[in-house]
Each structure stands twice: as structure tokens, then as C-alpha cells.
Amino acid sequence: MPAFWSAALILVGALVPAATAHAQLPTPPVNPSESEVLEARAAFVRGMQFGEEGRFDDARREFIHSYAQSGSPVALFNLASTLRSLELPRDAAEAFIRLLANPDLDASVRERATPMYADVVARVTRLRLYGPLEGATIRIDDALPRSLTGQTQTIVVNPGPHDLIADRRGSRPWRWSGAARAGASVDLLVEFQAIGEDPTDEAGEAGDEGWVIAGVSAAIAVALGVIIGAAVLDAEAQLGPRTGLVVELP
Amino acid sequence: MSARHIAAGLACCAVLLGSAGCARNAVFELELDLPAQPAGVTPLYAVVQVRNDADFSADWSTVVPLEGIPLNPSCPSSAVTCGDRELSGCSAVVSVVGDGADFTRRLRVRVRFCASPSCEGSDDATPPQAHIEVERALYQGRYTQGRVCIDSVPPTPTPEASVVGRCDVRCRDGEAVMHCRADGSHFCEDP
């Protein structure tokens, strides 16, 4: 390990309020140029400074940049440690996994990283999905949709609130919103309702009972709307983008 | 009109009475499957611009581009049909937000493949590009999605536009192969 990196190992141990951002581990260059290494070192030093000041979000940004430029295991270690301190165990685990998968990892770094990895793995939240998942996709918060297979699947997330939307062709989306604590496992039954299965879906299929339900629902909706309407800002009713790349048409 | 639609409409109007709160806007999520970085050339960025007030022959220099998306060195096989591909590290999802007159306008997307993220570098005078035209992307109060796969960096700065038909735009309540009803109306429209 180069002298700079070996002298720069830090352990960011303080607990700070939970953050909600996702860690996106970058893919560093295989053979970083001299300028990239210099830039990485500068970012690393800034990250250490931020860490010492308790500015862990800023430290994370710098360590990500440092790792992206250099691929340095020490930068990755400090990134993982910072994510751990930010109470983002899933993201920290991802970084530790990549770190520990490096067969050339310095023994001292491995020795420090291994128990930290065990700690964060114990603190992730597991969402266990059950149901007809084959062919469905699931979107978790703002992340890109991912495919589901089989009848059960476990998704590892950071503790805290999450929004899930599962889609399957020909069916209505399944949605879940909720919060889960660190180390918890939450069982979620995913049920899809085929389009057209709901008897109130299509014209002509709704019987008298459907109309009664619709009338009552409408009356309740009107009452609720008048009561809460004044408190709802117009802007809040607008659809918001769910991805990071956004174009607002003029 | 179904009972569900009546109830939904009344509920929406109830909120409208109190706050003018029904969503007037719409969001189209353009799923771009980008090509892999070609070997042996300068690293390229996909620079996306979107507009609905002019066609591709117009001057696009005033259209603010999104920050360039670096092309990934390797991407999943392009042998899989575009609509059946999973979103991957080579995918980018662009949310286009519009309202009012935007709903009926054709949406045009220009994807330039540039040497710099801003596409303003010295090598970016006439970058290769892909053109995408969406017949109708936006429906009031709805999220919609459309998928376009660009399997390789186009060889030309003046390509033919790929057209995403009205019934190829997905609505969350739509079904997979066709997103229009038998009568031609879109699932995002009231029947």
C-alpha cells in the first residue's frame, strides 16, 4: 500500500442522523493517471477533514470522488466507514463487500473491515416479498426498477421509510409504503389484481351495489375534500418526477 | 363510465373545490437504453435535450441539455427485444414534466454523443446523434413510460428519427403489448 494511503486510514465512528441518499459505488479506472491520483488524494484529504468536523455527508461525497478517481482500497474503506456512521448499513455493506472481495487487500485493512462488515450486515433491513413475483418488476423509492422472479424474494434496504411499487403486465400496480427499523425483517405479501378483475372497472359491469358504493365513496370524498382542501397547496397536488434526470417543458 | 371513474372524478372535484388541487401536470418517463462506449475512441457522453415546440430541423442551441451521461464500457446484449430488456447500468430514465398544451404536442428528444459532458468541447461541433419522436407522451395526472434502445452510437449527425407511437407509451394501468383499447383510445384516457 502506498505510504499516503496507509497513513491515512481513519475510522469514522460517530453516529449522525440518518440520511436517505443512496450510495452509488462508482467504477474506478483500472489504471488511473497521475492527475487522477493527485485529484483523488486531494479529495481524500478533504474527506478526512470533513470527517473530523462531523460533516459526514460531505465526507462521503469526497471519499466517493476519491475512490472513483483512484480505486484506492483505503478510499473505499473510508467511504464504507462513513456510510456506516451515516446509518446507511445497506450501502455500507455494499462498499465493504467490494472492499473485501479484493484479493490484494492489505491485511490491516481487512482486519479492520471484517468486523465492521459484520456489524452493518446485522443492521440492514430485509423486505421479504411473497406472492406471484415471476415476471414482475419492483421500484424501490427513486431507484430504477428491478426484475423479480419466483415466489419469494428478499430485498435488502437501509432502515427507514420506503415506497415500493411492483408492476406486472396485465395487472394493477401493487404498492407499499412503510418504515422498518435496523435489523428488522418485514414480510410483505404482494398481490396483483388483474386489470378488469375489479367488478367496478368497466362500464356496464357495475351493479346496483357498485353504484351505492360509488355514491357513498363520492360523498365521503366530497366531505373530506372540502375539509382538507384548504390545507392542501396546489403545488403539492402536482406530479413530481421520480428520477434524477428531469426536463421541465417550458 | 364506470362507478370507479365517477367516484374518482367526484373525489378529484372535491379537492378541486377546496384547493384547485387536481394534478394538472403529467410526467413521461423516457427509458433510454444507451449504447456501450465504442472501443478505441474518446470516452463519450450521451447529452439529452427535449422539446415539443419545434422539429429536429430547428435550432436546438437554445434548448438546455441535461448533464452528459457517460457511456458504460459494457452493456447487456442487444439481442433481447428492446421492450423486454431490463434497465441496466446502461440505462437512463429521463422524467419529462409538462402540462396544458404539452399534452397534445409531439415530444422530440435529441441524444448527442459528445466528447464532453456539456457537448461544448472542441470535438463536439457535429457529434453523432439519435433522434426520438414521441407521438403523444403526456396525459394529465398520469405517469407514463416509453422505452427507446440505442444499440450503437449512430454514424451520423442527421439520423432518421425513431418514432414512439401513441400506443407504445405505457400507462401504469395499461397492458404489455398494446397500450390502447380496442377502440383506439389510450389507457391513460378515460374510456
Tell me what you see in this structure.
The complex is a heterodimer of chains A (250) and B (191). In chain A, a hairpin with a 6-residue loop joins strand 5 and strand 6. In chain A, helix 3 packs antiparallel against helix 4. The termini of chain A are far apart. With 250 residues, chain A is of the alpha+beta class. Chain B is mainly beta and 191 residues long. Chain B has one domain. Chain B is 9% helix and 28% strand. In chain B, the strands form two sheets. Chain B has a five-stranded mixed β-sheet, with no helix packed on it. The longest helix of chain B has 17 residues. The radius of gyration of chain B is 19 Å and the shape is globular. The N terminus of chain B is likely disordered. The interface between A and B is large, with 52 and 50 residues.
- What is the CATH architecture assignment of the largest domain in chain A? Alpha Horseshoe
Q: Which structural category do the helix and sheet elements of chain B fall into?
A: mainly beta
**Helical element count of chain B?**
1
Shape annotation of chain B: globular
Straight-line N-to-C gap of chain A? 53 Å
Provide a concise account of the structure shown.
The complex is a heterodimer of chains A (250) and B (191). Chain A is an alpha+beta fold.
